[in-house]
Amino acid sequence: MSAESxxxxxxxxxxxxxxxxxxxxxxxxxxxxLIVCDPKSLKITQAGDNAGHFLGISATDLLGKELSxxxxxxQATKLNTLQTEKVVVPxxxxxxxxxxxMLAHHSRASLLLEFEPLEDVLxxxxxxNHLSSILHTFQQAGSVNELCxxxxxxxxxxxxxxRVMIYRFDSQWNx
Length: 175
Prior knowledge:
Elements: H1 3-6, E1 33-37, E2 44-47, H2 51-55, H3 59-62, H4 67-71, H5 73-84, E3 91-95, E4 98-107, E5 110-117, H6 124-139, H7 144-159
Antiparallel strand pairs: 1-2, 1-5, 3-4, 4-5
Helix pairs in contact: 6-7
């Protein structure tokens, strides 16, 4: 891949948003880490550079290892069963005594696993209040554009992202 194709644009806008490197492992958000596995063998084929920071194991040390090395045999077996059934649900996993939310996605011939640290707030009332606020905001939208703007702003605020964009992909899969 050329440096030109992976270079991050100075400013992302409608004319150059196809160059936004959202599909490159090294360009993921800073709030978690991305691990890529072979879906059949569950061997780790790629890992985000920030794996050491979040997981306590460097990306280099993860490459070629079975996923069970990272999340344990029981969780890896559960994930394998769920992905075989084409149902992949978020799972809570523990890596080096740290709790993570693990989100799995299929992309072409790979299984992408996002690991996000879990906080200790588990109060259902807090979650219900957030959900009610979100639904109210969405119901106030008068158009698809207003709904998208509200969704982007809520996502940015709730997750602390630097910026959020909602994409409509064209026939070339540009956002």
